[in-house]
Structures are given as structure tokens and as C-alpha cells.
Specification:
Blueprint: H1 2-19, E1 29-34, E2 37-39, E3 44-51, E4 65-69, E5 72-74, E6 77-80, E7 85-92, E8 99-108, E9 111-123, E10 130-137, E11 143-148, E12 158-164, E13 171-174, E14 182-185, E15 196-204, E16 207-210, E17 214-216, E18 222-223, E19 228-234, E20 241-247, E21 257-264, E22 272-278, E23 283-287, E24 294-303, E25 319-322, E26 334-341, E27 344-351, H2 356-359, E28 365-369, E29 381-385, E30 389-395, E31 400-407, E32 410-411, E33 415-418, E34 431-436, E35 439-443, E36 453-460, E37 472-475, E38 482-485, E39 495-502, E40 511-515, E41 528-533, E42 537-542, H3 547-550, E43 556-563, E44 569-573, E45 579-583, E46 590-599, E47 602-605, E48 609-612, H4 618-644, H5 646-652, H6 663-666, H7 678-683, E49 694-696, H8 709-712, E50 722-724, E51 732-735
Parallel strand pairs: 2-9, 10-18
Antiparallel strand pairs: 1-3, 3-7, 4-5, 4-8, 6-7, 8-9, 10-11, 11-14, 12-13, 12-15, 15-16, 15-17, 19-20, 20-23, 21-22, 21-24, 24-25, 26-27, 27-30, 28-29, 28-31, 31-32, 31-33, 34-35, 35-38, 36-37, 36-39, 39-40, 41-42, 42-45, 43-44, 43-46, 46-47, 46-48, 49-51, 50-51
Domain Fibronectin type-III: 328-426, 522-618
Pfam families: fn3, Lep_receptor_Ig
Transmembrane segments: 623-642
Length: 744
């Protein structure tokens, strides 16, 4: 037991290597699938048989078998088979994979190990090959055939081209290589000038399919070399016919050939084809060509006896030829504008260049005269130009002019242009709608009076007036109620359109409209400006967008505003307005505002404008300033009143005399009595201080200078009073000066 346990790790590793070997092909297990190729969606049955003695490490214990379809586990049944084998059966009711691998697994040491594998494929029977065609190469006389393989069958499919003669058995003509759908049958298997039957066979694991059988003479599908055009010329002169001559390719001159000729002018959308030309003739005539026009000619041929499946040669190299010119024909469409100036008419005449069928060559110029050209003498020319417009002056009495075109071959018959006044009845209901990215449909109501023609004018709004001389057209149908404008129309541009009815003796007054052939969002939005702001309202203004950047009709302006505490609000403004007042704002608040311009095709936002509302309204500010002004004026009035009213000033600010400026302070006695002043000097060496000054009114009948008894009874002191008399009736200043101060 010890030796057996010691060898167990080695045996397990060896068994693992055996089990992991590719497909488990060492005889440990076998997987069978019935059938290995099935129609897509069919049932598939499989069986896995595990031989226990051949799977190292699985001799003891129960063998558990499981299945995996690619990486997805599927359930099967397990039973014990003969000879100690374990058998597991599996049925897949609907196999919906085009290709998959089915693995048989056993559990070993807790993991699933693959011990067997089978590949299953599913698909469809081969589809019928289509569009079989063959071409015989005259260089090596090999018949090259090609076809379309049809629907993918999801299975490996082989193709074989088979052929048979009138009395021979079917043989394999060729097998395509490299996945191509063509191959070449060699000359030795072909019967030239005899009917042969050719078809394609497609085969895969689920069946076989054949193409339609092609019954042809290999010579009928021979790829001939194209003929060579030798000469082209106009015959006779002044007709619309030409003659062509060609040479057949070498190796085809002995064959009866039928050929085709094709030609076109540079402006033609497609080739014109001429059939039924006999190849051996070598020449042919064809009529109906335009004068003075360059054409390209090509030719090809095939066997005349060939069936509809016969192969045409390639087209010959193009040969160009310009037909001879002829004098222009037809009438010119003309339109005019006239302004009186000093007894003359200033005329702007415009016309349309003739079409190629009427120009009969390259037009060299146009001539305008006052009278038609007569045989033998030319009319006086007032304008000779290579353009399609002319400005000139004619006498006011000249009511008509004559217009003609000329080329190298001659001059057209003159077109009479009557300079009618624009006084006729205008039309009603004019409108224009897009006809495409570069066209406009113009509609109007049928006129009440008979109309001979209509003239439409259009001008891009952003362009200079009168810049487009070709922006007009004439509708000759007097009963028309619509016309398509295509010349000079560009998307995202606004056009002014005018319509003139032409009556028998007058031109109608024009009616106008505007239109776009295509619209989009404006290139940019207007720039906002703050016009006025208060604590609850802000008035904004902007400049209308220029027509060049509108890209369509402005349908509305939308104003958006928001603050840090409120959500976004908006208001739609009529496109005819250029200002808007936002109401209901909060005082002293910052707002972000922007404008959006809209057309029927989109909208564009403008840049943001930041504004801050005020604390007070204008009326409140005015009231505040008025109140402050009134207070200031009141204070000034009071101050002036105080300055002018002495009594009030005395009451509020009493006048205190300055003792230094008093008369007593300035008075010096003439002679001092003999009075000892030593005591004063002894008491106070400095000057006496005056503390009180009393002004007394003198009484009538008393002599000044005599003291009252009360004053004589005063206690003795060193100083004595001084009295100064200024004159009769004047105040008497009296003071008593002492060392200890004044007393009065």
C-alpha cells in the first residue's frame, strides 16, 4: 500500500497528459455523430463510448460522462455498455449552428477533461447558379463562361462547368479555381458552328443543383474586335445629315456582321443609338444633327446570325466631329426697363441666349437697332455686344427696338421689342415655395384678363441690386399659374421675387414676395444690450440680424434669464421687435440673460449678458434725493435766518465784550493824585487782573465824576476808582480795580 500510494502522483500526472492529448485519440473514448452534416435546424444524435481500461486513472470508481457543444454544456444520458465500457447518448433537437465542435468529457480529480471530439456542420443544399454567360476568345478559341453562385449554403460547395454536343455525352468542360465563378473550356472540347449545351453544376454534402442550360453556337458568342471609324463629314451643305465610313477589324471581314452606332453632344444626358447597320457596307448616313455642334461617335459589331445571346464587340474609340454652322433661328426672349430722362428714354434691355437648337453654332454677338434690317442696307445700330444685356438711350417717341443674334454663318431675323408702360392690372396670390435645394416654385392666381406671357424676376437680397442680369425668365404660356426657378438659386439665401403679367398692349404692375429654397438655423444670434434696469425690471435691446446670417425667416426671438436662486425662465418675442422688458426681478440680484434666434429649421443661442438689479427704483431714488434736498434747503434757510435776526442771535449766542478792547482798557488818566501805591506794589508786583466790567448808564441832572454814597461806604482799599467822562449823554464806564480782582 505504501508503494502504491507513493506512485499515485506520478500516475495522475501521466493520466492527465494522456487525457489532455488532442481529441483524446489514444483509444480512451470514441465519439460518433449521425449524421455529421445536417440541414440547418435539424436534429443531431451523438454517442460517446469510454473504455475504462484505456483511460489511466479511471480504472477504479464510477466514470461520469458529460458533453460540451463548443464551450456550452449540454445534457446527455449515460449507461453501462458491453465489456465494461461506459456509453453516453446525446440528442440535439434543433442544431442552429453552421459549424460546431461536440466534446465528450469525463470528470477526473474534480475537473472535466475532454476525451473525445466530433465536428458537426449544418447548412442548406446548394443554390441554383444564375446568369450563366459565355464568350469565345478568337485568339485561342477558348470559351470563357461566368455565373453567379446564388445564395450561400454555409457548406463547402464545388462548381463544375459541363458541356455536351449535339450527339456527344456530357463532359466536364472546366472547374473554377481559387473560389472564382468563371472558367474557360478549351478548344478541343468545343464544336464550332454547331449548337452546344452548357450548364453549371453545384454540389455539397446535402445535394446538387444545376443552372439553366445554355444552348449556343460558340461562334455566336465570339468576342469580335471593334471596327475603326475612318471619316465623318456633313453632306450636303446646309442640311442636318452626316456620312460615316469605317473599317472592320482583321479576322472579321469574312463574317456577316451587324453593327450599331451611337453618338451624343457634350450636354446630352444619354447616347443616341442607331441600330441595323450592315457591317460590310463600310459607310452609312444619318440625319437629325444640330448645326454647329460637336458630337462624339462610337461603333460596335457582332455576327449577324448570332442570337440575342450573341456577344457584341467593345465600342470603338470615340471620334469627335463638329457639324457646320447655320444662321441663328427663332425669336429671342427679351425684357426691359425704361426711365424717362429729358425727352429721352434710358433703356436697360436684357435677353436670353438662344438654345443650341436655335443658335445653330457659336453665337458671336447681338445687335440692337431702331428699325428692322432691310435688304441692301443696314439699320442704324444702337448697341452691339457679346453680353446678354445692353443699356442705351433712345428718343421718347421710339416705342420699339429690334434685337438679333449672329454667328459666323449669318444673322437671325430681328425680334421686335415693344417698350410698353407698366400700367396693367397686377396679379394676385403670389407665393413661392422650395422646389429643391437649388430651385423655387412660384405660384399665382389666374388673371382675369387675357395674358400673353409672364416675366419672373428674382434677386438675392444680400447681393448688389442689378448684379444678376440673368435672374429672370419668361413664361410663354398665358394660362400658366406656376413656374420653376432654377438659375442662380442657392440654399440659405433670401430672394426677392417679382412677377409681371404681359398683356396685349401693356405690362402689368409687378407683385412681390420673398422665399428661401432651403433654411437652417441662424449663423449667430443678436448681441444683447442693457437699455434700462431697476430693482424689479430690466429692459433689453438688440440689433436685428443681417439677412446674410439669418439663413431663413426669423420666426421668433426667445429671451432666457436665471439667477443663482431661481430656475431658468423664458419669454418668446415677435421677430419684428428689437427690445424686451423682463419684469418681476428681485432687487439687488445678479442675473444671467441670453437670447435665442429661431427659424423654421433650427435655433441658435447668443452670448450671455450679466446684469444686477438695483436696490431702489428710480422713483424711490428720486424721492430720496428730493427729501435730502429739502432737508438741506431747510438747514440753509435756518442758518440764513439766524444770521439775519439779531434778537434770535442774542438769545442763542449772547455777545460778550472783550475787556482788552474796552475803552477802560485803553484809558490812561492825565494826572494821578498823590496816592501811595506802595501797598499795591507790596502785595502784588504784577499787573492787576480785571475780572468784571460794569457799564452804567448816566442819569440826567447828575454830574459825572461824583460817586454815589453807596460806593463811598465801601471798605477801604489801596486802589481808588477812576472815572472817565466821555461827554454828555454817553455811557459812563466805571470800574474798581483792586489787588484781589474786580468787584462791581
Amino acid at each position: 500500500m505504501a508503494r502504491r500510494g507513493a506512485g499515485t502522483p506520478f500516475l495522475r500526472q501521466l493520466s492527465l497528459l494522456l487525457l489532455l492529448h488532442l481529441g483524446g485519440t489514444l483509444g480512451c473514448a470514441s465519439v460518433t455523430v449521425s449524421p455529421p452534416v445536417v440541414p440547418l435546424g435539424s436534429a443531431v444524435t451523438a454517442s460517446c463510448t469510454v473504455q475504462r481500461e484505456l483511460c489511466q486513472g479511471l480504472e477504479q470508481g464510477r466514470v461520469r460522462i458529460s458533453w460540451m457543444l463548443d464551450s456550452k454544456p449540454v445534457a446527455g444520458s449515460q449507461r453501462q455498455g458491453p465489456g465494461g465500457t461506459e456509453v453516453s447518448n446525446l440528442t440535439l433537437p434543433r442544431f442552429n449552428h453552421t459549424q460546431a465542435r461536440l466534446f465528450c468529457c469525463v470528470e477526473w480529480n474534480g475537473t472535466k477533461q475532454r476525451v473525445g471530439m466530433a465536428e458537426i456542420r449544418a447548412g442548406y443544399p446548394p443554390a441554383k447558379p444564375l446568369n450563366l454567360s459565355c464568350v469565345l476568345n478568337l485568339d485561342d478559341y477558348g470559351l470563357t463562361c461566368q455565373w453567379q453562385p446564388g445564395t450561400n449554403s454555409h457548406l463547402p460547395t464545388s462548381f463544375v462547368l459541363k458541356c455536351t454536343g449535339s450527339r456527344a455525352q456530357a463532359v466536364t468542360g472546366c472547374t473554377p479555381r481559387g473560389g472564382h465563378s468563371r472558367c474557360t473550356v478549351p478548344r478541343r472540347l468545343l464544336q464550332l458552328y454547331r449548337q452546344m449545351e452548357i450548364w453549371v453544376s453545384a454540389t455539397n454534402a446535402l445535394g446538387t443543383a444545376e443552372s439553366e442550360h445554355l444552348r449556343i453556337d460558340p461562334m455566336d458568342v465570339a468576342k469580335l474586335d471593334p471596327p475603326t471609324l475612318q471619316s465623318i463629314q456633313s453632306i450636303p451643305f446646309q442640311t442636318d445629315c452626316i456620312a460615316l465610313a469605317w473599317d472592320l477589324a482583321w479576322g472579321t471581314k469574312h463574317m456577316e456582321l451587324q453593327c450599331e452606332l451611337r453618338y451624343r453632344a457634350p450636354e446630352d444626358p444619354a447616347w443616341a443609338l442607331v441600330s441595323g447597320i450592315v457591317g460590310q457596307a463600310g459607310a452609312a448616313q444619318r440625319c437629325g444633327f444640330l448645326f454647329g455642334t460637336q458630337y462624339s461617335f462610337q461603333m460596335r459589331c457582332r455576327r449577324r446570325s448570332a442570337s440575342a445571346l450573341g456577344s457584341w464587340s467593345e465600342w470603338s474609340p470615340s471620334r469627335n466631329y463638329t457639324t457646320h454652322e447655320k444662321a441663328p433661328t427663332g425669336k429671342l426672349d427679351a425684357w426691359w426697363g425704361a426711365q424717362p430722362a429729358g425727352g429721352r428714354l434710358e433703356v436697360q434691355l436684357r435677353w436670353k441666349a438662344p438654345r443650341q437648337r436655335e443658335a445653330n453654332g457659336r453665337v458671336l454677338g447681338y445687335r440692337v437697332t431702331l428699325s428692322p434690317r432691310r435688304r441692301g442696307r443696314d439699320a442704324p445700330t444702337i448697341c452691339n455686344t457679346t453680353r446678354t444685356q445692353c443699356n442705351f438711350s433712345v428718343p421718347a417717341a421710339a416705342g420699339r427696338v429690334y434685337l438679333s443674334a449672329y454667328n459666323a454663318a449669318g444673322e437671325s431675323a430681328p425680334t421686335e421689342v415693344i417698350l410698353l408702360e407698366r400700367t396693367g392690372q397686377p396679379l394676385a396670390g403670389l407665393r413661392a415655395v422650395p422646389g429643391g435645394e437649388r430651385s423655387l416654385w412660384v405660384h399665382w392666381e389666374a388673371p382675369l384678363a387675357p395674358v400673353t406671357a409672364f416675366v419672373l424676376e428674382w434677386q438675392r437680397v444680400a447681393a448688389e441690386p442689378g448684379r444678376c442680369s440673368a435672374c429672370w425668365q419668361m413664361e410663354r404660356d398665358g394660362a400658366a399659374t406656376a413656374a420653376l426657378i432654377e438659375d442662380g438659386i442657392e440654399p440659405f439665401q433670401r430672394y426677392n421675387i417679382s412677377l409681371y403679367p404681359l398683356y396685349a398692349g401693356a405690362v402689368g404692375v409687378p407683385v412681390h414676395t420673398t422665399a428661401y429654397s432651403q433654411q437652417k438655423a441662424p449663423s449667430h444670434a443678436p448681441k444683447l444690450h442693457l437699455k434700462r434696469i431697476s430693482k424689479s425690471e430690466a429692459e433689453l435691446c438688440w440689433e436685428p440680424l443681417p439677412v446674410e446670417v439669418q439663413n431663413g425667416f426669423i420666426t421668433s426671438y426667445t429671451i432666457f434669464w436665471a439667477s443663482s436662486t431661481t430656475s431658468m425662465a423664458s419669454a418668446t418675442v415677435n421677430p419684428s421687435l428689437s427690445s424686451f422688458a423682463i419684469r418681476g426681478l428681485k432687487p439687488s440680484t445678479l442675473y444671467k440673460v441670453h437670447i435665442m434666434a429661431s427659424t423654421a429649421a433650427g435655433s441658435t443661442n447668443g452670448t450671455s449678458l450679466t446684469l444686477v438689479t438695483t436696490v431702489l427704483d428710480d422713483t424711490e431714488l428720486q424721492f430720496l434725493f428730493l427729501s435730502l434736498g429739502l432737508v438741506f434747503v431747510g438747514l440753509m434757510v435756518l442758518l440764513i435766518c439766524f444770521q439775519k435776526n439779531e434778537r434770535m442771535k442774542e438769545q442763542l449766542w449772547p455777545s460778550v465784550p472783550d475787556p482788552a478792547n474796552s475803552s477802560l482798557g485803553k484809558w490812561v488818566p492825565a494826572a494821578l493824585p498823590q496816592e501811595p501805591l506802595q501797598g499795591l506794589a507790596a502785595r502784588e508786583p504784577g499787573p492787576a487782573a480785571i475780572s468784571t466790567v460794569t457799564v452804567l448808564e448816566g442819569e440826567a441832572g447828575k454830574q459825572p465824576g461824583k460817586e454815589r454814597p453807596a460806593l463811598a461806604a465801601a471798605p477801604p482799599a489801596l486802589p481808588r476808582p477812576y472815572v472817565r467822562q466821555e461827554g454828555p449823554g454817553e455811557p459812563v464806564q466805571y470800574a474798581r480795580v483792586g489787588g484781589a480782582g474786580y468787584r462791581g
